[in-house]
Structure formats: C-alpha cells, structure tokens
C-alpha cells in the first residue's frame, strides 16, 4: 500500500524530538532535565495510543485495549504513558469542551488533536512544570483562554470542582499473577513476592497467585523478566482447561499477544511443540516478544492465517489439541479495557445497527475458525474461548457447530466443573460451558471444550499434573486404538463427501 504524502502544514507541525548528544539533552537549544525529557516522550506516546483507541472507538472496531497498547514493547515510559492516557480519557469531554469554547486550535494543530488533548490535560490538571515542546509552547501561550473556558464550563454545569463532572467507576478487582513455571516454581515465586505484597495462591488454578485490588506489579523485576505474567483469572483458565500434556503438539490458532501461548508451553513443561499462529503483523511481533520473554523454547511462531493451515498437511498430523481464542468484541473486559472512558460508552446498553453488524461479522469468523479446528485429524481436544458476554459469539457459535463436531466424533466436555457459573441454557450441554460474570468476577469470559477419544479426566489438578486418565493403561490404549481407527474411517468418509 502506498503511503499518503504529508502535506506541507503536516510536515511543519511534525516536531523534532529533543536531542541527546554528547551528554547534552536539549530542545531547540534549551537544556532539559530528565523529567522534562521523559514527560515529553510520554505525551507523544500517549497521543499515539489515544489516536488508536479513539479511532477504533469511533468505528466500533475491536482494537487492542489501552493496557495492551501501552504495555507493548514499543512504549518506553509505560507507567506514565498509561496514566496519561487514562486521565486524559477521563477528562476528555471536559477537554473537548474547553478547546472548543476557547477556539484556540488552528488547522495545523487540529491535525494533531490527540496530542492537543494530552497537553491540555497536563496544562489544566497535570504536571505543568515538565511542559516542553512545540505543542506545549503553543498551548501554554493560550493557558489563560483555556482556564477561563474551564471556569465558564463549571458555572454552566452548576458545579464547583472538575471532579464533580467525572463519573466515578469502581474497579475493585483482585490482581492476578500467573507464575511462568518455565522459569520459577510457584512456591518460590510466592515466597519472593510475599516479601513485598499480600499474595496468596488461587483456589482453582495452581500456577496463579492473587493480590489485593490496586496492587501494581508492572515494574516488578519478575514481570520484566517473564518470571510472572500479569494475566487475569479467566484468561488463565483457558490453557488450564485445555490441559495439554508434556510432549504433545498443540496449535494456538489466534495467538497474539501470546499470554495463553506461553501458558500452554509452561503446562507442557517446555516439552513437545506449541504452534502459535497470528495473522496481524504488528501483533505477531508482540507474540514473538512474549515468547522470548517467557523463555518458551518449544513454541514455534507463525505469521499466518489459521484458516490457511491445512488439516491434511502432514506438518499438523500429530496435533492433539487446539486452543482457539479468536478475535471477539471484548465486551467482557470492557471495564478492564477502560471502555467506560471512551466516547461511545455514552450509548452503552443500546445496540445499534453498526454494533450488530460488527458482532455478526465476528461471529461468522469465529464459526469458520472453530469449524476449521474441528477438521484436524489427530486432535483430541479443542478449547474455544472469548472475552465477550454476547450469546452470538459464545453459545450460538457452539450450537451452530455442534452437529458438525458430533459428526467428527467430538462431544462437549465439562470445563472446570468446580466453577459455578455455566453457559446460557440455549444449547444442549450448556451446563458444560463456562462463563465468568462481568459484575461478580469483574470480567466476562466464555470457555467451551470439545473432546474425542473416550472420557478423559479433565479436572484442573489432573491437567496440571500431566495425568491422562484414571483408567488402566491397557484399556485406555485399546480404546484409543479403536477410536483412532473409527475416527480415520469416519474422517475419510466425511472428507470425500465434502470434496464431492
Ligand atoms: C483475542 S486475541 C488472542 C489473545 C491471545 N490468545 C492471548 O491470550 O494472548 C485474537 C488474535 O487473533 C488474531 N487473529 C484474527 N484472525 C486470525 C486468523 N484468521 N488467523 C490467525 N490469527 C488471527 C488477532 O489478530 C488477535 O491477535
């Protein structure tokens, strides 16, 4: 694709970053402190994230969450950038109002409106002392106009303080830390973290630790070196449900940023192979970074469309499990994604035609991907998961594929039986499906599992210990053999019917 040529004025508006040469840190000849320099870059990085988020929101596209954009490898000053994006979003309607009423933005700066929002936030509510840069200079010269527009807004709305214009949101959510057992065992990580934080083991997922709400581990050396991953409970349930054994070959069909990929690798003790497939180029880089960080040497990353992986290809003839966590609306993690801060949340609860169209398109892809997964001949388990609360992306996908799955020898398998919240009763076997509750559990996930080749013990304990079944080995081997013959015959029949 050809790049659009920048107009003269856009080029003029593009700023030169501060130099850092021979020990001199300067911007337009002025010496900068480290704080000024780092604040300058944070504002530009925050503006870039804000642009992606706002553009996605206006088109109702499922872009990555603010957290995943900020905590990706390309952002340097992650904590400051994240705080700046969130605070600017919280104040966005006020900032827009103030900028509109004061009429300070000329054409040149209007084209960098996200940077203008960020700088305005810092001038009115943030850290004014570190304001260096052309955009900052431009708005600082208009500070009085901005302040009086804000004062008029408060009078108009009949409030005394800005805080009264912001809707509070309670996100008292426990923080979860998944121990990467490829690098450290759970007990050692727990002992080490307990020196600084209140941490306990999760009651269900053996490699998961729980911290109180508000615990911030982003800058902890364990996080930076991949000893632990900041991964929620529901997200950690997915690979644990699949329960791959060491030595297996497994496909992670839609893998980036790779949290579940490296969880699979850890559950397999680094033995066997995880084929992690990702379509998006930018997210593929992120996936590679996660895999490297985790030290997951048994992961083979692929930049490809999962639908292009042929089930007949001998490369995949030994694949025994597939984790399918396809693109979804992300509606179950809206609180985590801070969607309530986005402009479109004003219409929350109403589904317009655009939303329905988008959900339908997502569901069409989800069905296609699940059908594709069901076609791999040696696969015994498939876990399908979303972070959506919508039936159309969850139970409806399962229900529409159930007849095909049955014809391939699959059955719905109970996912984590000890979990109380099950699927919506709109499909046969809904009690085997798992949902987490966006209010009670603070995130809405959905997990379904298909299994074939006899009854296996899918309790998490057994999955984590690498047991296969409680039945005697010989019986198991025999029934597996019988099933494999049956499945091959059935599959050949099905495939030739399809080709015809
Ligand atoms: C929900 S995210 C996966 C999150 C990931 N499982 C994790 O836990 O870190 C879905 C991913 O699937 C990718 N994707 C979408 N369509 C795909 C396709 N046809 N083949 C492979 N990847 C695809 C998206 O780019 C996105 O990165």
TrEMBL record:
Catalytic activity: a cytidine in 25S rRNA + S-adenosyl-L-methionine = a 5-methylcytidine in 25S rRNA + S-adenosyl-L-homocysteine + H(+)
CDD domains, per the entry: AdoMet_MTases
InterPro entries: MeTrfase_RsmB-F_NOP2_cat, MeTrfase_RsmB-F_NOP2_dom, NSUN5_7_fdxn-like, NSUN5_RCM1_N, RCMT, SAM-dependent_MTases_sf
GO cellular component: nucleolus
Domain SAM-dependent MTase RsmB/NOP-type: start-end pairs: 165-453
Keyword set, alphabetical order: Methyltransferase, RNA-binding, S-adenosyl-L-methionine, Transferase
Protein family according to the UniProt entry: Belongs to the class I-like SAM-binding methyltransferase superfamily. RsmB/NOP family.
This protein's record includes keyword Flavoprotein: no
Any GO molecular function: RNA binding
Domain of life: Eukaryota
Disordered: annotated span: 1-28
Single biological process term from Gene Ontology: rRNA base methylation
Catalytic center residues: 387 (nucleophile)
Entry protein name: SAM-dependent MTase RsmB/NOP-type domain-containing protein
Source lineage: Eukaryota, Viridiplantae, Streptophyta, Embryophyta, Tracheophyta
One Pfam family matching this protein: NSUN5_N
